[in-house]
Automatic annotation (TrEMBL):
It comes from Streptosporangium carneum. It holds the Pfam family MFS_1. GO terms for molecular function: transmembrane transporter activity. This is Major facilitator superfamily (MFS) profile domain-containing protein. The keyword Cytoplasm does not apply. One of its GO terms (cellular component) is plasma membrane. Keywords: Cell membrane, Membrane, Transmembrane, Transmembrane helix. CDD domains: MFS_MefA_like.
């Protein structure tokens, strides 16, 4: 069980309950993730109208996740330097503009597959700022005791929107009119932007607690100031990575998250072809299939807080990792009917929801507020940066060995890494506490050993 500590400063004066600001944030996130789910289903379908090459199809999810590898660190610096609410508004505005531009091209029949890649890349680049700012904002607007509740509601909203309701709606809209999912996604982002604008700051909640390095304050020339600023950005980017690498609990958690993401994206990168050629479903059926596969995630989100509190971090990490790996192997070996795939993938998606609540709450407690954006982005760079590699590997494996092979190979990879990290996991304490300082080596090693 995770207990509160002093590593994350808490702004005083929070009332009991989650509060008005959190509910605006949750509403915005719910609507935004619904729009993401719509376009997540639509983009592979749109690509499949232009090509049947598994490698080219896999480049859509590759482009969707590649910014996490390339831009996450600098995104973390931005999140820690500027007002997080304004960053979320700016990210949503840029994403809306990009969606409208591509939707106009699709509407008038000039679609090229490279446009899909650019749209996917741009939307993810905006998500780096939006997600980093949103998660860094949560521990400053809700009490520490409410973190599992707040994160559980966010994960449930994300699962419902991005994985359950959104894909079914996106495929239905695609069948009705090809560009319609893009227009609907743009509308959801605009509405999300308006809701975020209603969040009100109290006592500087929206900006990280920061100190200015003495050498940058004393710089005497404009060129020197710019050089110092560049050095400062690089130093801040590396600070987040070093802090994460030095934390004996979080670094193992992130390694397993990256492995899980790589493994599942091997299969998901060609799911649209797997659904059509192996399971025999059409365009509309693809969205329904993706939505049904997320049912486990919805259930997991509803019980995640109780599961984490009942079993603790260590048991959740081990149990979810093993069950998720085995579910992927089982789909590759036995998943020839939609109902079988839905049931087996439900194990994986339920584990994902429980994992996300555990990992987000743990990070928000252990990471100092002034490092929240940078360490959070370093975490996501490693964990989400594995996604494009998984997509690339999945396309190559499917082209060489068939559409079921990515499921089996991905599951074996996940299980192998889990077994490799098992000795380190068994040495974790049963109670993980934040240290009285920002020392990453001290964090997570106090409390009773299991």
């Amino acid at each position: 069980m995770v207990t509160d500590g002093a590593a994350v400063p808490r702004t005083g004066g929070k009332a009991s309950g989650l509060g008005r600001n959190y509910h605006y944030l949750l509403s915005a996130y719910s609507i935004q993730t619904l729009g993401e789910g719509v376009v997540i289903a639509a983009l592979p379908l749109l690509a499949s109208k232009l090509t049947s090459d598994p490698r080219l199809i896999s480049w859509v999810p590759l482009a969707t996740e590649l910014p996490w590898l390339l831009l996450a660190l600098v995104g973390g610096v931005i999140v820690d330097r500027y007002d997080r609410r304004l960053l979320m508004i700016g990210a949503q505005a840029a994403q809306t503009f990009l969606l409208v531009a591509v939707a106009l091209v699709v509407t008038f029949g000039g679609t090229q597959i490279w446009m899909i890649y650019i749209l996917a890349f741009g939307l993810c680049a905006g998500d780096i700022i939006f997600m980093g700012s949103s998660r860094a904002l949560i521990p400053t607007i809700v009490r520490s005791a409410d973190l599992e509740t707040a994160n559980g509601r966010n994960v449930t909203a994300e699962t419902l929107g991005r994985m359950f309701l959104g894909p079914a709606l996106g495929s239905a809209l695609f069948v009705l009119l090809v560009p319609l999912p893009l227009w609907v996604n743009a509308a959801t982002y605009l509405l999300s932007l308006l809701l975020i604008a209603r969040i009100r700051s109290e006592a500087g909640h929206f900006r990280a607690i920061r100190t200015v390095a003495p050498d940058r304050r004393r710089t005497g020339t404009a060129d020197g100031a710019r050089a110092a600023e560049r050095r400062g950005v690089l130093a801040e980017m590396m600070e987040g990575l070093r802090w994460l690498a030095g934390h004996r609990v979080l670094r193992v958690t992130v390694l397993l998250a990256a492995t899980s993401n790589f493994s599942v994206f091997m299969a998901q990168s060609v799911t649209v072809l797997f659904a059509k050629d192996v399971l025999g479903v059409g365009d509309a059926g693809y969205g329904i299939l993706v939505a049904a596969m997320a049912i486990g995630g919805v259930a997991g989100g509803l019980v995640s807080r109780r599961v984490v509190n009942r079993f603790g971090t260590r048991s959740v990490v081990i149990g979810v990792s093993v069950a998720s790996a085995l579910s992927l192997v089982a789909i590759g070996l036995f998943g020839r009917q939609p109902v079988v795939v839905v049931a087996l993938f439900g194990v994986w998606s339920a584990g994902l929801s429980v994992w996300n609540v555990m990992a987000q709450s743990l990070s928000q407690r252990l990471i100092p507020n002034e490092l929240m954006g940078r360490v959070g982005s370093a975490t996501r760079m490693v964990a989400f940066g594995a996604l494009p590699f998984g997509a690339l590997a999945g396309g190559l494996v499917a082209a060489a060995y068939g559409l079921t092979a990515p499921w089996v190979i991905g599951g074996v990879v996940h299980l192998t890494v889990t077994l490799f990290t098992l000795p380190a996991l068994l040495r974790w304490p049963s109670v993980i506490e934040a240290p009285p300082s920002a020392d990453p080596e001290a964090a997570g090693v106090s409390g009773k050993a299991g």
